[in-house]
Amino acid sequence: MKIIKPKAATFDDFFKLASFFYKTIGIEPYDQPGVEVKQSKSFVANLVFYLGVINLNYILVMEFVFVALAFIHGENILEAIMCLSYIGFVTVGESKMFFVFLKKPILSNFVKRLLKFFPQELKLQQSYNVSLYLRQCSKVTIAFALLYMILIWTYNLYAVTQYLLYEKWLGVRVIGQQLPYYTYTWWDWQGHWSYYLLYFMHTFAGYTSATGQIASDIMLCGFVYQLVMHFNYISMVMENYQVKIANAKDNEMHKARSQDMAFLMDMIEYHDCLMELSEQLNHVFSLPLLLNFSASSFVICFVGFQMTIGAEPDTLIKLFLFLFSSTAQVYLICHYSQLLIDASLNVADAVYNQNWSIADVRYQKMLILMAERAQKPVQLRATTLVLISRGTMTELMQLSYKFFALLRTMYVKK
User: Residue 222's pLDDT is what?
Assistant: First the structure.
């Protein structure tokens, strides 16, 4: 019987799904370390990217026009409120695409530095418990990507499914030609061949926006899981380290001190590098995360409002899926950050739990400095305005409810 030996995981295993989604919209988020940088992407990738961005912005502008005209004329107010949810969704997706594209050099440098710390050998990976983190990361990213794909294709295909099911198959009601999203158009597309082009443009814009969010969030998930893995490894090594000076003989004291100091200096440098990498990660994602949280509060509010005004059952299911997906996305980001907070703070506890009391005085002083620095948690930030943790989820839901209550009150009075 042939024995299959386990294979060592690779750095890219954490980002396979993110890379796939980015490729479908023509984006290469960072340069592959060790691979010669190409001067330009392929023609097909460039075409897909620019067509996607142009189409997405066109649909976004038409949505703004639709909302503006609705409020100016006092017509289609409910549709305009739903359109505001679409605008928030598109804004989040495009902002994440834009900042990843804009910050590519910084992100490439971040990946290059993070790769240097990734354990390559199988035996070393077992010490880091890489397989566990990879499994957890894969489960989260696959579930999140599947949820968002179900969401976007539900919305993309909802109009044509209604038309085929209720009008063509069952014949219970007249649906007519409808578009997936509310936008302004300056020509009559009903019964015209341009309807199919417009439907494709809506569908393409929805997929581009959703994919921009999926790829960015699951790539961020991979980065966070690797940082958490490294912080936890430092905690494990620091807590289990036995100072050499404890068992050294008189003639070996100097050598033991040197070994202890060399070990601690390596750990401090390792820890400092992880802190710097965390700052780099925030430099890339902080502003899109702020836009994400701001837009999500309004999206949750508007979708919740639509669900309380007597929507049809099939529409209610669609709205619930939108609400659940938006809430899940925000929670996921908060969960990433909380994992990072807990892992970084555990370093200080590990330092304290080490048998430092019998160590050299210089070793103890350096240990104090490391513990002091580790007491400042590392976390994701939505700029300096919002420090993200699981508590942020509660604050966001409270804010969304306040907007919802205000909108509901205004609607009832009207």
Answer: 92
List, for residues 126-160, the tens digit of each pLDDT value: 889 899 999 999 999 999 999 999 999 888 888 88
For residue 3, what pLDDT is reported?
53
Q: Which residues contact 246 (CB under 8 A, 6 or more apart)?
A: 355, 358, 359
Beta-carbon contacts of residue 21 (< 8 Å; ≥ 6 apart): 145, 211, 214, 215, 218
Q: Which amino acid is at 25?
A: I
Q: How far is CA 335 from the centre of its chain?
A: 11
User: Would you tell me how many other CB atoms lie within 10 Å of the CB of residue 144?
Assistant: 20
> How many CB atoms neighbour CB 346 within 10 A?
19
By C-alpha distance, which of 233, 282, 177, 213 is closest to 56?
A: 213
Q: What is the pLDDT of residue 81?
A: 83
- Number of residues written out for the chain: 414
273: its two tokens = 């590098």
Residue 316's CB is within 10 A of a number of other CB atoms, namely: 13
Pairwise CA distance, residues 296 & 237, whole Å? 40
Residue 245 has pLDDT above 90, yes or no: no
What's the CA gap between 236 and 89, in Å, rounded? 41
Residue 34 has pLDDT above 70, yes or no: no
Q: What is the DSSP string of 63-132?
A: HHHHHHHHHHHT-SHHHHHHHHHHHHHHHHHHHHHHHHHHTHHHHHHHHHHHHHHS--SHHHHHHHTHHH
Three-state DSSP at 314 gives helix
Distances (CA, A) of 328 to 113, 321, 323, 335, 363: 31, 10, 9, 10, 45
Q: How many CB atoms lie under 10 A from the CB of residue 190?
A: 10
**DSSP H or E run through 279:** helix 253-307
Provide DSSP, 351-391: HHHS-GGGS-HHHHHHHHHHHHHHTS----EETTTEE-SHH
Evaluated on CA atoms 244, 245, 247, 248, the torsion sign reads positive
Give the CA angle between residues 61, 66, 71 to the nearest 5°.
130
Q: For tokens 């306040």, what's the residue?
A: 402
